[in-house]
Amino acid sequence: MTLPWSGPPLHVIGMGIEAGDTLSHAARNALEQAEVVIAASRYRAIVHGLRAEFHDYPSPLQKLWPLLQEQAGKHIVLLASGDPLFYGIGATLTQRLGTEPICFHPNVSSIQAAFARIGRPWQQTQMLSLHGRPLASLKAVLQANRLYALLTDRDSHPQAIAALLQEVGFGESTLWVAEDLGMPEERVRRFQAAELANGMDDFSALNVVILETRGRGGLLPEFPGIPDELFITDDDQPGKRGKGMLSKREVRLTILSLLSPRAGEVGWDVGAGCGGVSVEWARWNPQGTVYAVECHEERLRCLTANRERFGVLNNLHIIAGQAPEALADLPDPNVVFIGGSKGKLDDLLEAGWRRLSPGGRLVASAVTEDSKMDLYRFADERPASWTELSIARGDHLAGQRVLRPYLPVLLLRLEKSWE
User: 19: which DSSP letter?
Assistant: First the structure.
């Protein structure tokens, strides 16, 4: 819900890394006309000689809204760092106030300045903020021979980033750490991940990290179809990696293609097992949200471990409980996959279809003849598509090569009309 706004526009000024020396004419004019300035205390000197009343940013930030309402009708300026619309306060402001009453004045961001310092083009760089997010979420985007720019915090400090790179096979990566940009104590240094992970270097809390991945990798997926043996499963004994309650790679890829998840969509993975489908789903659709529902204690442990292993902590949410009861408080889905049913397939199909948004897709799998009959009954008189997969994998028997078949898997796909 947006808050009502009256009076002059709210000006949000990015200060850049050189403080007030780089302000545009429009930003300077807004600051000179300001009656109220809200900013971090380090910017207090900016208002010296102006008529503006200075307020520190309130903590927590929720207290900003009452402060803005108290000053309603006045010329208000908020000072931010860099570009307020690049991982800054701009997104929060537009969510609460809309875009109409706000005038943004962007400046040079710390990321932009850091690339200038090392003399590297950055148009193909992938940006990621680790500020307030788990460091393991970096695993969700890491790929070989790529350039990344990271906004950090005290838990994602340079040594921790380097240790994570070494853990996933990118120990040869190069890291540049840019500290205190624009300040007298500014420092930019270059490291190799394997060396930095074991180093004792001290870094300013005000730093950004640029990294270029190098190394053998192989522990994080680069393309859809994660090898089964990379998952932690409930049958994780020596020689049985990738066994247990996990959709096999060939089946998993077919399921994902039938689901066709899109950015911004909400998905349910009902009976998620150890997380084969939901982990891949969340990794390759980072701007979607996946709810993985599972009730088996050991599989929940594996699901949680796989979520961490592949870094999909931001958009994969684990719901511990038995469906359909566990679905009650979830947001309505655009996409539903039903993989495990515990004998309640009829109820799950009905619940998923009832809550499915118009234009949404429902995919369900069956292995036993009884569950296949449940799918056939539910799809009766509905426009459905059917796929049956029969896969076999190479093995040896008595010194000879054989192909060992798996049980065929029947997949039902339904799409809900917009009417």
Answer: G
- H helix runs in 108-208, sequence order: 110-118, 158-167, 193-197
CATH of 10-108, one of 3.20.20.240, 3.40.1010.10, 1.10.630.10, 3.40.50.300: 3.40.1010.10
pLDDT of residue 241: 62
Whole-model pTM: value is 0.89
Q: Give domain 111-212's CATH superfamily.
A: Tetrapyrrole methylase, C-terminal domain (3.30.950.10)
pLDDT digits 0-9 by tens, 28-54:
999 999 999 999 888 888 777 888 999
Quote the CA–CA distance of 184 and 355 in Å, as a whole number.
58
Q: Write the single-letter amino acid at 300.
A: L
The per-residue pLDDT of the chain, averaged, comes to: 93
120: left (phi over 0), alpha (psi -120 to 50) or beta: beta
Residue with structure tokens 């008529």? 51
Question: For domain 228-415, which architecture applies?
Answer: 3-Layer(aba) Sandwich (3.40)
Tens of pLDDT, residue by residue over 309-344, are: 999 999 999 999 999 999 999 999 999 999 988 889
* Cα–Cα separations (whole angstroms), residue 296 to 45, 246, 272, 401: 59, 13, 10, 36
**CATH 3.40.50.150 domain extents, the chain:** 228-415
Residue-wise DSSP of 320-387: ES-TTGGGTTSPPPSEEEE---TT-HHHHHHHHHHHPPTT-EEEEEE-SHHHHHHHHHHHTTS-EEEE
Tally of CB atoms within 10 A around 123: 6
The terminus-to-terminus CA distance of the chain in angstroms comes to 28
Amino acid code (one letter) for 90 = G
DSSP state of 399: T
